[in-house]
Specification:
With 409 residues, the chain is an alpha/beta fold. The chain has 2 domains: 3-199 and 390-408, Glycogen Phosphorylase B (Rossmann fold), CATH 3.40.50.2000; 204-389, Rossmann fold (3-Layer(aba) Sandwich), CATH 3.40.50.2000. Helices cover 46% and strands 16% of the residues. It contains 18 helices and 13 strands. The chain has helices at residues 15-20, 22-30, 50-60, 75-97, 107-118, 134-140, 149-164, 173-179, 183-186, 212-222, 242-255, 273-278, 296-300, 322-329, 343-350, 361-372, 378-389, 391-408; strands at residues 3-7, 34-41, 63-69, 101-105, 125-131, 167-170, 195-197, 228-233, 259-264, 286-289, 305-308, 334-337, 353-356. The strands form 2 sheets. The protein has a 7-stranded parallel beta sheet with strand order 3-2-1-4-5-6-7, with helices on both faces. The protein has a 6-stranded parallel beta sheet with strand order 10-9-8-11-12-13, with helices on both faces. Helix 6 (134-140) runs antiparallel to helix 7. The longest helix has 23 residues, at 75-97.
């Protein structure tokens, strides 16, 4: 049995860790791997037993959990301090537990692992779980100036990590083609190292409840009988296009006056509510609320279609929006903009929605018509979700395959 340490620069209680880290670790445990997890927590735990409960819950899932303090003030210095602390922890872990694989989720954790490995005699394999194009994401979002010092420094680190790692994960076929030309045919890069494309997957069993009875229940609860319900899940701002999403809902309202907008978001309601009102939505025409991840299938079961608009920029070629997998798992057709990860191929090849080329009224109108005339059904959409995004059969299987290939090399 192999032993691995997964390094994550987020807190264990964050939704991303709950849905996109821990489920994958459970899948690796199924494959016979001993999995340890270290996270960086933004706040110390209260003396209420919550830390021990989390540790016990994770241990029952086969995950040995550790945590370090996350620092935020003076951002660059704080991150440097966290990297140093993480490196020290990983060095001790290598000495005491002798892991076979160090698994870094994106750049900062992988840097900790790479430096720690340099400073120890034992040399476990290093997995660079690249996910997205981190340096470009920060410049595309306006957080870092384009080609500024922080961007150039991050790219130098990235190039070094690409040399040091023994295996890689990216989220999209587009990202693999950019970073590892030729790997789509062989599954290995020019140096013979394995490269896996693992999109953001969903636990399909969570969405089994999105059936007709669940649909009727939520529609009755919200008073949606006879209405066309368009859903949106996720935050607004940054890469997530608030005005454009509101514009589409406005076009939909014009063409289908019975439309109800279901917005499930962690953003403040005032981010989107005034824009909906400006576009003809009354108080009984929309719901803007925050729900727990486990409640998303229940709410989406009451919808008829779903929207996914993301800023089309270079970094988003590496993006795999989790919301798209969730929409399909609930049997909802997607209205998405072109140029985001592998979404163009997903929609074009599988007849699962409408793809818009720009955010004009004409494109919106065409998308509305395409969704209305889409010759498919909910089961087809769920089947596509299972084939492309199933946590066990896609995500878990590919991680287990990657671990096996790394350990065999």
């Amino acid at each position: 049995m192999s032993r691995s340490l997964y390094i994550c620069y987020f807190g264990v209680r964050e939704p991303l860790v709950q849905t996109q880290v821990i489920p994958y670790l459970r899948e690796l445990v199924k494959g016979g791997h001993e999995m340890s997890l270290v996270t960086f927590e933004p706040a110390v735990f209260d003396k209420d037993g919550s830390e021990e409960k989390l540790k016990t819950d994770l241990a029952e899932q086969g995950i040995d959990w550790h945590w370090l303090k996350y620092h935020k003030r003076f951002s660059v210095l704080a991150t440097a301090w966290d990297i140093m602390q993480g490196t020290r922890f990983i060095r001790r872990f290598i000495a005491e537990r002798q892991p076979d694989i160090l698994h870094g989720r994106v750049h900062v954790p992988t840097l900790m692992a790479a430096v720690a490995r340099k400073l120890t005699r034992r040399k476990p394999k290093l997995l660079f779980d690249i996910r997205g194009f981190f340096p470009e994401e920060y410049t595309d979002a306006g957080i870092w100036p384009e080609n500024g010092l922080l961007y150039r420094s991050a790219k130098r680190v990235e190039r070094w990590l690409l040399k040091q790692a023994d295996g890689f994960v990216v989220l999209t076929e587009k990202a693999r083609d950019i970073l590892f030309p030729g790997a789509s045919e062989t599954g290995i890069d020019s140096a013979g190292r394995p490269v896996e494309v693992i999109p953001c997957c969903v636990d399909m069993t969570r969405f089994m409840s999105s059936d007709d009875s669940a649909r009727n229940e939520i529609r009755n609860k919200l008073g949606l009988d006879g209405r066309f319900v368009a859903a949106y899940v996720g935050a607004f701002g940054g890469w997530y296009l608030t005005k454009e999403t509101a514009d589409f809902f406005g076009e939909l309202k014009t063409r289908r006056p019975d439309t109800f907008a279901m917005i499930l978001t962690q953003s403040k309601p005032e981010t989107i509510e005034p824009l909906l009102r400006e576009r003809g939505y009354g108080s009984n025409d929309f719901l803007v609320t925050k729900v727990l991840p486990r409640e998303i299938p229940k709410y989406l079961s009451g919808a008829d279609a779903a929207v996914s608009f993301i800023k089309n920029c270079y970094s988003k070629q590496a993006s795999s929006p989790t919301k798209n997998a969730e929409y399909l798992a609930c049997g909802l057709p997607i209205i998405a903009n072109a140029g985001i990860g592998d979404v163009d191929k997903l929609i074009g090849d599988n007849r699962v929605g409408a793809l818009i080329m720009d955010f004009s009224s004409e494109s919106f109108a065409t998308a509305v018509n395409e969704i209305a005339n889409l010759e498919t059904n909910g089961q087809h959409l769920r089947d596509v979700a299972a084939r492309e995004f199933d946590l066990e059969k896609v995500g878990g299987a590919r991680y287990r395959r990657l671990y096996a290939r790394m350990l065999a090399s």
